[in-house]
Amino acid sequence: MVLPSLKLQDLIEQIRGAKTQAQEREVIQKECAHIRASFRDGDPLHRHRQLAKLLYVHMLGYPAHFGQMECLKLIASTRFTDKRVGYLGAMLLLDERQDAHLLITNSIKNDMSQGVPAVQGLALCTLSTMGSAEMCRDLASEVEKLLLQPSPYVRKKAVLTAVHMIRKVPELSSIFLPPCTQLLRERHHGILLGTVTLITELCERSPAALKHFRKMVPQLVQILRTLVTTGYSKEHSISGISDPFLQVQILRLLRILGRNHDESSDAMNDLLAQVATNTDTSRNAGNAVLFETVMTIMDIRSAAGLRVLAVNILGRFLLNSDKNIRYVALTSLLRLVQSDHSAVQRHRPTVVECLQEPDASLSRRALELSLALVNSSNVRAMMQELQTFLSSCPPDLRADCASGILLAAERFAPNKRWHIDTILRVLTMAGIYVRDDAVANLIQLIGGAQELHAYSVRRLYSALAEDISQQPTVQVATWCIGEYGDLLWEGSCEESEPLQVEEEEVLTLLERVLQSHLSLPATRGYALTALMKLSTRLRGDNNRIRQVVSVYGSCLDVELQQRAVEYNALFRKYDHMRAAILEKMPVVEPSGPQADEEAKESGEAVPSPSEPQASKLMDLLDLLDGSSGEAQQLPPMAPSPEDSLVHLLDLPCDPPAPACSSSAAHPAGAPPLPVDDGTRCLRPTRELLLSPTPAPIPNLRVFEREGLQINLSFVRPPETPSLLLITVTATNTSGGDVTHFICQAAVPKSFQLQLQPPSGDTVPAQGGLPMTQLLRILNPNKAPLRLKLRLTYTHFGQSVQEIFEVNNLPVETWQ
């Protein structure tokens, strides 16, 4: 006996009328009990009604898994009302993670072979929604037959199902190539739109399909030209734009077909120019078509004039009142700035105006694009605009703005004085937001510009006297005063208004820094060292400096206390050596890509990475211990390897006895000196150096996208042939930093993999310092190596995840 239950409409009214969540749960639990009882009794007439109520309960978030088998029974029924609810339940309650979904494969196949379009449509919709890879392989031939059915309704459903199948099983692409050629001649909007989508999926997943459909570019061009000139049908027009959805889909397909193919690109150039010039931009639909046109022009091998037209369209988008359109324009220009820098440069004033946007996402994109537009010809004007923005930008943008200004100034500085002034202004305005290396870089820059020492120390002294709250500025200023403080009262700087400074004023200012509650421990360390440096440069006595230093001998900060104690010892015990110890720091040689560029411009020889360097001797111990292996080429033997290696490597053994020709050191008749006593522990190192140097393994580039490049370099230590050391090097030539960078690797089970910590998680923009990570792979069986990498990072504000397999590793890595 079936218990009485509510109708679907009554159930909805009771649930909506529940005043509390407890009342709602009570109603649903009571009705679910009736539904279970009805399923147990096997009432075939009301089964679809009970399942419909269960589906509504499922939509509210309550469990409804006990209705899965009822869906299969309804699908197998001959009544259309049962099939309709059964297929709907299958789409909602079943997925490919459950084995029950495979039981409806035969029912779907039987329904697709029927001649009833409504039933065929239900089967196709279900297959396209929850069809697994196994179901797609079993039913692909049935869907292929339905693609050429006379009913437009069935053909449209079959095309969408084919799209799902290609996404699930790309190997099925060969089955759907012939029908697509015929379907492109359709006049039905839904079929044509679905066919273009299907061809796009095929071309993205199959090189054979891409080659096949490139022959159909003229046909696609003609379809799009008809849409633009005569229109398709009034019912599909939006805001005066003829079928914008179909136009956008065809443009995306043309972009794929024309990429890296001259013939296809030439065939669509005229049409793209026509679409770009004749599309109305007063409505959002027209802007969508124009945007896809611009992306297609930039991806294919288009003419130079057409690319300039595309950039100009994006420039007009920047003047649009819609924030979304302006954001899309800024993001697109940021992608194009590397390939079409001169064309994007024409819209620099508009981009700079976008910095003042109240919307944070717009101003961030404008900042990234502005930094990418900086070059040697406009660096002064752009730095002025960016510094103005830095003074008023929101706090969450100050770090990016300050870092970008410092990087651009380092790369394009016209002279050192301008460079110093720029960094000093940034430190003064946003000192707490700058990168950690800004202080060291400015100190190195000032130290290398001897002609600007007097100018720099006066500028920094004035800035320090005005404000001691910006810690980076204070640190640089105290260092500079300690090194070149004697230039403050010598008056050697050629200034229109010379600065008159007394020695006591300088000491008072440094004491203020030491006593300020705003000063960090590192800043106090700079100030204490500056006082010690001035003790050798002052013309008067040093009693005041000695008193200050002695006070900090009992400081709670251990680092500061240690400095003070050591400085007190200099005064008491080693006063005769103090002047020599506290001399001015020597000029630090610059390093990095910027230094290499300056050396090339000045005609100096820059050592290539492949040249042997003496410093690589330090890596030999790591090689012997098996803990590292980054040295790619062993250096040649030195004339006296024993002496140099004992000194450099500091091996735990006695040094060799000095060679002496006097009879006192080596009496006549005495046995010869045991030469091996001092070099027995050097034998492995000496044999390694004297052994033949293995041929270097060529580097391999495995990834490149939007300026981010991943290169692999390989080393196999001679003493451990089964060990392979892979250095992953990430470089970034784009205009925006790559942040939150994570590189993960996997190898087959027969290998052993160990990932060393990376050098950082940020790859700086515009060719900054690369990020490196070491992979240690043990291959005892010398099997062919396959490597799978997963890259996760954030670039231009978008999170990116790439997974790919490296199968083309050099044979030297495993043989």
Q: What is shown here, in short?
A:
It contains 36 helices and 10 strands. The chain is α+β, with helices and mostly antiparallel strands and 815 residues long.
Can you walk through the features of this model?
This protein is of the alpha+beta class. Helix content is 55%, strand content 8%. The strands form 3 sheets. Strands 3-4-5-8-7 form a 5-stranded antiparallel β-sheet, with no helix packed on it. It has a 3-stranded antiparallel β-sheet with strand order 6-9-10, with no helix packed on it. A two-stranded antiparallel ribbon has the order 1-2. Residues 599-691 have low confidence and may be disordered.
Essential attributes:
GAE_dom, 36 helices, 815 residues, elongated, cytoplasmic vesicle, 55% helix, 8% strand, transport, three-stranded antiparallel sheet, alpha+beta
What is the global morphology? Answer: elongated
The biggest beta sheet reads: 5 strands, antiparallel
Helix/strand-derived class? alpha+beta
What is the mean predicted local confidence, pLDDT? 81
Number of separate strands: 10
Q: Provide a count of the helices.
A: 36
Give the C-alpha Rg.
37 Å
> In percent, how helical is the residue content?
40-55%
The largest sheet has its strands arranged as 3-4-5-8-7
Alpha carbon gap, first and last residue? 77 Å
Strand content: 5-15%
**Regions with little confidence, pLDDT below 50 for 5+ residues:** 599-691
